[in-house]
Amino acid sequence: MVNYDLIIKNGTIVTADSIVQGDIAIKEMKIKEVSIGKPIEATADKEIDAKGLHILPGLIDTHVHFNEPGRTEWEGLETGSRSLAAGGVTTFFDMPLNSTPPTINKINLELKSTAAAEKSIVNPRFWGGLVPENIDDLKDLHENGVIGFKAFMSPSGIVDFNNVDDETIYKGMKEIASLGSLLAVHAESTVICDQLAKEKQSQGKTTARDFVESRPIISEIEAVRRIISYAEATGCKLHIVHASSRKVVQVINDAKQRGLDVTVETCPHYLSLTVKDLEEKGAMAKCAPPLRDAEEVEDLWAAIANGEINVIASDHSPAPASMKTITDNFFEGWGGISGAQSTLNIMLTEGYFKRNLPLEKIVELTATNPAKLFGLSTKGKIAVDYDADLAIINLNESFELKNEDLFYRHQHSPYVGMTFKGKVKTTIVGGKVVFENGQPMKK
Ligand SMILES: [Zn+2]
């Protein structure tokens, strides 16, 4: 009789289309058996009793900034990946910027992937960058396994990662289309944001509200419309990251209706925080595009319920607390929200419990869709021959998030102080437990 590496017994198994009681058997990093309604009769080196607990495919966070190599004083692959494990995330896609050097050529990609192989306790994948200087490097990056390419339509805030001009967009998208890859964009209008920021600051208007008003929804819409036109002109597959409003999602939806291959991400902070939080929490809750008002939050949840959003990702973009102190000018201070550990908590608390979002939908947005969209053919599902990447959660357990619960390099987050319902108990990557009893493993 077969001896498995691990059997998870008596759990409630959640996938994108079903919730069932059953056992899961794992061998050599893969799910080998899923038994619905009757126990798996086999031995195993390790057993986990998941009675009363829910088992989800491990989350795939398609948008994090771990800043390694070169800026590990902000975060790092070890601390970043341990925080993901604590949040039930089993795979991440690291963005090409905020690490130094940025991931804009093959050599830089190798530096990052070597560091990740050494330090990450969950599965790492990498975005390549599209910047005005690296069109000739895209092919190399693609052939060396980047998940896709990321460009900024407005300044990135990082000196070694330039935003793209329209000519770079056109040439880059043509090249990316020919590679069969996709382009993800930070879509905000430089002109609109710059002009408004200048106007505000010249009038001494520097509050949180002023900052938000300097980056209005129409600035996202303008950039999204423009990049969609380029997608149409070049045939390049497009992914819009961190849409902050359903009004932006609507523009993308219209393009989808016309048959364009375009998808959209939103983030937990746009689903749980508002301008009021920004006023109260300060730079801890500062990001771009900025937080919006409460009606926009509700509209985004409606968009999710209506199937208009493809992916939920954290856009974890941490920085030391010293960069998060604002004196009296909200335009100063680092923009970027530290939140990767809490994505599932927010989706469960604000989505499942507060707004009746089905668990299956949460799995679809955080695991199944990301796997499908980015070609991870053995991830995102609990089924035979899929990778044994799992999150085991207790939906009945509530807790208040405290700074000391966070495994980031810098133990702060705008979510600290929030009470979450639903707690990650165990995280499994490739059949191996990487988080249990409140502690992520050390590599
Ligand atoms: Zn980002």
TrEMBL record:
<dbReference type="InterPro" id="IPR017593">
    <property type="entry name" value="Allantoinase"/>
</dbReference>
<feature type="binding site" description="via carbamate group">
    <location>
        <position position="150"/>
    </location>
    <ligand>
        <name>Zn(2+) 1</name>
    </ligand>
</feature>
<comment type="pathway">
    <text>Nitrogen metabolism; (S)-allantoin degradation; allantoate from (S)-allantoin: step 1/1.</text>
</comment>
<dbReference type="InterPro" id="IPR011059">
    <property type="entry name" value="Metal-dep_hydrolase_composite"/>
</dbReference>
<keyword id="KW-0659">Purine metabolism</keyword>
<protein>
    <recommendedName>
        <fullName>Allantoinase</fullName>
        <ecNumber>3.5.2.5</ecNumber>
    </recommendedName>
</protein>
<comment type="similarity">
    <text>Belongs to the metallo-dependent hydrolases superfamily. Allantoinase family.</text>
</comment>
<feature type="modified residue" description="N6-carboxylysine">
    <location>
        <position position="150"/>
    </location>
</feature>
<dbReference type="InterPro" id="IPR050138">
    <property type="entry name" value="DHOase/Allantoinase_Hydrolase"/>
</dbReference>
<comment type="function">
    <text>Catalyzes the conversion of allantoin (5-ureidohydantoin) to allantoic acid by hydrolytic cleavage of the five-member hydantoin ring.</text>
</comment>
<feature type="domain" description="Amidohydrolase-related">
    <location>
        <begin position="55"/>
        <end position="434"/>
    </location>
</feature>
<keyword id="KW-0862">Zinc</keyword>
<feature type="binding site">
    <location>
        <position position="186"/>
    </location>
    <ligand>
        <name>Zn(2+) 2</name>
    </ligand>
</feature>
<keyword id="KW-0479">Metal-binding</keyword>
<feature type="binding site" description="via carbamate group">
    <location>
        <position position="150"/>
    </location>
    <ligand>
        <name>Zn(2+) 2</name>
    </ligand>
</feature>
<dbReference type="InterPro" id="IPR006680">
    <property type="entry name" value="Amidohydro-rel"/>
</dbReference>
<dbReference type="GO" id="GO:0050897">
    <property type="term" value="F:cobalt ion binding"/>
</dbReference>
<feature type="binding site">
    <location>
        <position position="242"/>
    </location>
    <ligand>
        <name>Zn(2+) 2</name>
    </ligand>
</feature>
<dbReference type="InterPro" id="IPR018228">
    <property type="entry name" value="DNase_TatD-rel_CS"/>
</dbReference>
<feature type="binding site">
    <location>
        <position position="315"/>
    </location>
    <ligand>
        <name>Zn(2+) 1</name>
    </ligand>
</feature>
<dbReference type="GO" id="GO:0000256">
    <property type="term" value="P:allantoin catabolic process"/>
</dbReference>
<dbReference type="GO" id="GO:0005737">
    <property type="term" value="C:cytoplasm"/>
</dbReference>
<feature type="binding site">
    <location>
        <position position="65"/>
    </location>
    <ligand>
        <name>Zn(2+) 1</name>
    </ligand>
</feature>
<dbReference type="InterPro" id="IPR032466">
    <property type="entry name" value="Metal_Hydrolase"/>
</dbReference>
<keyword id="KW-0378">Hydrolase</keyword>
<dbReference type="GO" id="GO:0008270">
    <property type="term" value="F:zinc ion binding"/>
</dbReference>
<dbReference type="InterPro" id="IPR047604">
    <property type="entry name" value="Allantoinase_bact"/>
</dbReference>
<dbReference type="GO" id="GO:0004038">
    <property type="term" value="F:allantoinase activity"/>
</dbReference>
<comment type="similarity">
    <text>Belongs to the metallo-dependent hydrolases superfamily. Hydantoinase/dihydropyrimidinase family.</text>
</comment>
<dbReference type="GO" id="GO:0006145">
    <property type="term" value="P:purine nucleobase catabolic process"/>
</dbReference>
<feature type="binding site">
    <location>
        <position position="63"/>
    </location>
    <ligand>
        <name>Zn(2+) 1</name>
    </ligand>
</feature>
<dbReference type="Pfam" id="PF01979">
    <property type="entry name" value="Amidohydro_1"/>
</dbReference>
<comment type="subunit">
    <text>Homotetramer.</text>
</comment>
